[in-house]
Design goal:
- Helix content is 39%, strand content 20%.
- By secondary structure, it is an alpha+beta fold.
- The protein has a four-stranded antiparallel β-sheet.
- Strand 2 and strand 3 form a beta hairpin.
- Helix 2 (23-30) crosses helix 3 (34-46).
Length: 150
């Protein structure tokens, strides 16, 4: 397991901001020699602290700029009901995140569509037919002042 000290935290911060940064630039930003920096990054990768690198996508440019978070409640709280719901969400390309959560509902979804009519179709054809769904609460994202997801 890689030790996450202050220098490694700084490396992780910089890589979170820009996963394509050169090792030379990263080393300069964190105050290490390039070889020491590369060793630390490789150790963080080996220890699975860094599990991968992603591209940051412009959803508006891709035509999926209508973003919602949806709270979903299930009528049946069994493992089988949860698996059936999760499998249905896995098949829906609009669902980019599906979280099983605690509280008054079972799931929180992040859904991305082109526009309101496409969301309405998803709401009726996917959520409306998903197994065991009894409650759907939609929150439309109007703006995001901070979004650290890749």
């Amino acid at each position: 397991m890689a030790k996450v000290d202050r220098i490694n935290e700084h490396i992780l911060q910089e890589l979170s901001r820009d996963g394509r940064i050169s090792n030379l630039e990263l080393a300069e930003r964190v105050g290490l020699s390039p070889s020491a920096c590369l060793r630390r990054v490789q150790e963080l990768e080996r220890a699975k602290v860094i599990s991968g690198y992603r591209a940051v996508l412009d959803r508006q440019a891709m035509g999926t700029g209508f973003v919602t978070y949806i709270g979903v409640g299930l009528a049946d709280h069994s493992k089988a009901a949860q698996l059936a719901f999760e499998q249905a969400m896995d098949q829906a390309p609009e669902v980019v995140e599906c979280h099983n959560i605690t509280g008054t509902i079972e799931y929180l979804l992040r859904v991305e569509c082109a526009d309101l009519p496409r969301y309405k179709r998803f709401h009726a054809d996917v959520l409306g037919t998903a197994p065991h769904v009894t409650a759907i609460t939609t929150y439309v994202v109007m703006d995001s002042s901070k979004d650290m997801r890749a």
